[in-house]
Every structure is written in C-alpha cells, then in structure tokens.
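Sample entry was shown:
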Amino acid sequence: MVASNENYSGSHAHGADHQICDAPRACLGCLAVSGLGAELTDSQVKALFEIAELRRLSKGDVLIAEGEYDDHLFTIARGEFEVTRGEGADREVQLVRLGPGTITGELAFLDGLKRTASVRAVTDGSCVIALKRECLEPMLAVDPQLVYKVMKAILRSAHRTVGQMDKVYLDMVRYVQG
C-alpha cells in the first residue's frame, strides 16, 4: 500500500485488509464502490458486472501498453498500478499511481485511438474489472440510464486526471519561476 491516498487518482475503496477475492462474484462489491459503479443502482451494478471480465495481474504485468489499440475500460478492484509514458527509446516517466476504485483507460475506450500511456501492476494479486466497449453499447437499448451513468463516471475520471495534470504543471511553473 502507498502511505497516502493522495497518490491515487480515484477513491481508495478498500483498506489494507482487503483480501484477494476467492470468488469472482466477490468483486461485485468492488465494482459497486468504484468510481464506475458509485452512482449505479444494485441492479445496474449487477448488469454491468455480467458484461465485464475479471483480470488478475502479478507485479510487473502490463494492463495497458502505450501505443496499442484496445477498447477496454478498467476499474481497479485490488492492488496498485503505475501509469508511465515513454520518453525516448529507453526511458519511461511515471505519471501517477492508481489504487482501488480508480477508472483507467477512459480515452481509448471512448475514442478507439491508441493508448497514450502504459499501466503496469506494482503489487502481486492485483485485480481489475474490464469492460469492453462493444459489450456496453447494446446496454443503450436495455438500460440507457446505466450507460449514461457510466459515461458520467468516465468523464469525471478524465476531468480528475486533467485536474491532476494541471496541478503538476503549475507546480513545475512555480518551481522554474521560483
């Protein structure tokens, strides 16, 4: 665990005592309290969970690879992840650390373009809930409110990311001017 929640871009839904889920259904609760599921009703969380998949990762496993195409949206259920961006041929810069409850992969999920950063597990036993765009789209006909709430959650997450980037930029400007 990171010593402080301020390194996370999302809420920290579980404490250090959260154990690896023995049954995939246990992750339903992780989805419900995440940034993605916070506004959903119980039945909407269940419907979203039914079209999602669970991915378990070990330390060092890549969830998202910069420059690749992938139309999945991820909600971190357990573990910590680092977001990095390549700088030159052999150098990566860490942008942020993510923890439980955080949504990641928003932009490529929405626009279908290449991933702009990599996301890698930094803890063993990490778990994410993956949602593929083509699985969410049919939900428009079944429960448009669910899709609307998911889109709101994605926009909130992207807005939070932009706010964090603005803060880092301002800190750098103050440092250079200082």
